[in-house]
Amino acid sequence: MLSADFGNLQSMSKMINDSRAEWLHFDVMDGVFVPNISFGFPVLESVKRDCTKLLDVHLMIVEPEKYVQRFAQAGAEMLTFHLEATKKPLEVIKIIRAENIKVGITINPDVPVKHLEPYISKVDMVLLMTVFAGYGGQKFIPESYTRIDEVKTLIAKHNPQCLIEVDGGVNFENAPLLFSHGVNVLVAGSTVFNAANPQHAISRLLDC
Ligand code: ZN
């Protein structure tokens, strides 16, 4: 929803509710981990009141362990944190689990995929950034396909149930390839919200 019209979040929720989208992806930026600030708890609470889809919250913030409870209380159903943003990834996973919500882990494009290996058996989802975290509307990094294959290998070895999500530059051209590489969840911002008919764009992506 980083690409949505923030002045009209109720109509955004209605559009999403009536669409084939399964989740709503919510990007939280703190101006420290990434050089940008997006939105926080009150916006999430407000969206939670109207949106019937799963709220997938992507934390681009330092020391995520400090804020897990508040995001869970505000309505997050999947909470994904950056491995680079904490010194205590295992503790973050434990704190998220204690809230009885799903847990995801993510890395930026310059972090080797093998750094995720110790955590794959403990999470529900790996989010692979296909642009650098921090801004909407960036171009997909083509080297991401190799990284997706590496993640798939680790998932097959340690936790076959684990989902793989990609975030950044997803469009109608790369969506079919992403699905064929085994990606389960596509995050699409500008491809959906800049479309003349966002619901149609969502359907078109799902049918890729
Ligand atoms: Zn995101």
Kindly describe this structure:
By secondary structure, this protein is of the alpha/beta class. It has one domain (6-206): TIM Barrel (Alpha-Beta Barrel). Helix content is 34%, strand content 18%. The chain is built from eight helices and seven strands. It has helices at residues 9-17, 41-50, 68-74, 89-98, 144-158, 175-180, 190-193, 198-206, and strands at 23-29, 54-60, 78-82, 102-107, 125-129, 163-167, 185-187. Helix 5 (144-158) links the parallel strand 5 (125-129) and strand 6 (163-167). The longest helix has 15 residues, at 144-158. The mean pLDDT is 97.
SSE layout and pairings?
Elements: H1 9-17, E1 23-29, H2 41-50, E2 54-60, H3 68-74, E3 78-82, H4 89-98, E4 102-107, E5 125-129, H5 144-158, E6 163-167, H6 175-180, E7 185-187, H7 190-193, H8 198-206
Parallel strand pairs: 1-2, 2-3, 3-4, 4-5, 5-6, 6-7
Bound molecules: zinc ion (ZN).
Q: Walk across the major sheet and give the strand order.
A: 1-2-3-4-5-6-7
| Class by alpha and beta content | alpha/beta
Hetero groups:
zinc ion
Distance between the termini: 21 Å
Identify low-pLDDT runs: none
Radius of gyration: 16 Å
Major pleated sheet: 7 strands, parallel
Number of domains: 1
CATH superfamily: Aldolase class I
